[in-house]
Amino acid sequence: MNALRKSLLTVLASVAGFSLLVSIADAATKRVSCSSSKTLNSAIAKLKPGDTLLVSGTCNENAVVPANVNNVVIDGQGQTTIDGGSEGATLTIRGIDVWVQNLTVTGGQTGIQIHRSSSATVDNVIVNGVSGTGIAVRGSSTARIVNSTIQNSGNNGVSVTENSNARIGFLTNNDTTVSPNTIMGNTGRGITVTESSNATIIGNNVSNNGNDGILVNAVSHADIASNTIDGNTGHGINFGRNSGVNLGTDSGSGIFDTPNSTTANNGGFGLRCFINSYADGRLGTLNGASGQTDFGSGCINSTIP
């Protein structure tokens, strides 16, 4: 029996190894032109792990990366627009380890939606003029957003909610230079982190949004360093309801250490706390028309100049 079991395990291991090699060998670069009869959705549905899909043209559809499409790259090559029209999300990601890059997203009620425990990297993408939120990370999902522009959304620029996590402006904790995003001109807030979510927000330009630059709320946490937070109608950084923010570190000059800066004052305070929350780190030049800080009931101010 033991000999038979060992033999069976050996065969299964060999088959598994062979399957992995076949999977790697099958990885391919594929192409779709949205100007032809093919659609982006049909091309995405055929992707296998390791594949890269090169897209061109204007894709007038609400595209979905389904849960069974994992470890793929969707590359617009700087010559692709996905237009979701007036309904739904323009691009929905439900797979794991999906990399979206070099394209423009417009239309739709949400530009890019990453949800249902999915994970994605958004790199060098322009999200412009959607009616709701530019990029929404929700439902226990994970995202990295780098080198992108999120602007002119009808609601928030970037929203991280429902126990989700995001890195905004860098890829790994070993990075020594930022991969900055520009998050500006959105009708709502630049970035929101809410509902037991976490974000690390490093080296971005968060400016001229119609409410706060950054909101951290409802048992959430954010590390916020090396950003320019300018000219937002509300507060520069607003946080509360059992939440916390670390504004870089008390010393050091690395991208995760350096305080945030303001050149054009935000409309409210530079840093505002409400209801049982805390802030730590350096204030830098973060400021607002009403003053640099406002700490309300139950708030702990551990910041230094």
Which terms would index this structure?
Pectate Lyase C-like, 10-stranded parallel β-sheet, 305 residues, mainly beta
Topology at a glance:
Blueprint: H1 2-26, E1 29-33, H2 40-45, E2 52-60, E3 63-65, E4 72-75, E5 80-83, E6 89-93, E7 98-106, E8 110-114, E9 119-128, E10 133-137, E11 142-146, E12 149-151, E13 158-160, E14 165-168, E15 182-184, E16 191-194, E17 198-202, E18 205-207, E19 214-217, E20 221-225, E21 228-230, E22 237-240, E23 244-247, E24 269-274, E25 278-282, E26 291-295, E27 300-304
Parallel strand pairs: 1-2, 2-4, 2-5, 3-6, 4-7, 5-7, 6-8, 7-9, 8-10, 9-11, 9-12, 10-13, 11-14, 12-15, 13-16, 14-17, 15-18, 16-19, 17-20, 18-21, 19-22, 20-23, 22-24, 23-25, 24-26, 25-27
If you had to describe this structure to a student in words, what would you say it looks like?
By secondary structure, this protein is mainly beta. The chain has a domain of 173 residues: Single-stranded right-handed beta-helix, Pectin lyase-like (Pectate Lyase C-like, 3 Solenoid). 10% of the residues lie in helices and 43% in strands. It contains 2 helices and 27 strands. The strands form 2 sheets. The chain has a 17-stranded parallel beta sheet that branches. Helix 2 links the parallel strand 1 and strand 2. The longest helix is centred in the N-terminal third of the chain and has 25 residues. The protein is elongated, with a radius of gyration of 22 Å. It starts with a helix and ends with a strand. The N terminus is likely disordered.
